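During the second half of the funding period, the structural biology subgroup turned its attention to how the target accommodates small molecules. The most pressing case was NAP, which had performed well in the primary screen but for which no bound structure existed. We therefore specified the complex as follows and requested a full 3D prediction, including the ligand pose.
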Amino acid sequence: MTYTPAEDRYERMTYSRCGKSGLKLPAISLGLWHNFGNDTPHALKQSIVRKAFDLGITHFDLANNYGPPGGSAELAFGEILKTDLDGYRDELVISSKAGYGMWPGPYGEWGSRKYLIASCDQSLKRLGLDYVDIFYSHRFDPDTPLEETCGALDHIVRSGRALYVGLSSYNSKRTREAVAILKGLGTPCLIHQPSYSMINRWIEEDGLIDTLEELGIGSIVFSPLAQGMLTSKYLGGIPEESRAAQDKSLNREFLNERNVENIRTLNAIAERRGQTLAQMALAWVLRGDRITTALIGASKPSQVEDCVKALERRDFTPDELAEIDTYAKEADINLWAASAERKGPARKKK
Ligand SMILES: NC(=O)c1ccc[n+]([C@@H]2O[C@H](COP(=O)([O-])OP(=O)(O)OC[C@H]3O[C@@H](n4cnc5c(N)ncnc54)[C@H](OP(=O)(O)O)[C@@H]3O)[C@@H](O)[C@H]2O)c1
């Protein structure tokens, strides 16, 4: 069926300036890490993207390795751009990244100039685009000079492959270093993409959140629902269709008694506020306007709808925040800790 975007799509969403840049991003963005690979029917992917755009979500986040298999999420999104969003390119902010393993051999991962530029070209081809809006270094590479990684990002912008550059999962110290190099090159860092949620608060402890504010860099926080843990779905066990049941990135061990007990109490607080837990979790990461946008994933359109409703109740009283703090405890779920040169759970993200 042909798709015509909702005419009122800009009425409910709010848009904030990304750091000190000229670019505005929606309060909620959609990521295609899961549910956009070859194991998901195309019509479902299409319906999720359509719902998001209809609700004012203008920012879609991808990476070379999203699938499975790697590359298939970009291919699927490229197809949707052609069939559904032709003519709307200038209303969209599309990002991609390179850093994790994408092809065999010594040039298929990390942060070399060789890998980043080749990967960006591959992503553009899969997406069917001339340029992406944002291109990221997906993780810090301890073995490649940061000057080389940043030089490649600068080249990607100067050659017209991307409009802006970003960093993902770099810790505060590495962020400062990369931002200074990029500034010197004349391609300022637009945005940082770290993980952050009520039960994964490393950016507070590391100081990254303060660093970004100080440097005037925007932030897009991924897995704000802790991959679905911060919803009501796991309160009574592991539902069959859930991410935890798929045995991919959401390790069942994360759903231990201690974590679920805290989540149960957070759910009760959300209910008292008249919100779903997912909505409260999103309002919480966006509290105080320090975070530009919350980057969610969704396995069906109704989840996108539920998440966007978070914007109807974003305020918290000091008492609510204090109560949430009692239960918003580190759940040891940060799969990306090693990418930020930090200790974390042994299981590593793909
Ligand atoms: N830079 C990086 O290294 C990195 C790493 C990871 C992710 N990301 C980005 O961040 C995006 C989001 O990550 P994520 O998918 O982990 O985010 P998330 O929003 O924390 O989790 C998404 C999952 O939560 C569940 N969900 C979402 N809304 C719901 C609702 N309203 N009610 C009930 N359940 C709901 C769904 O799980 P079910 O599938 O169980 O229904 C959904 O797949 C990715 O797509 C990617 O773009 C970046």
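Two results from this model are relevant to the next phase. The chain has one domain: 14-228+280-316. DSSP finds eleven helices and ten strands in the chain.
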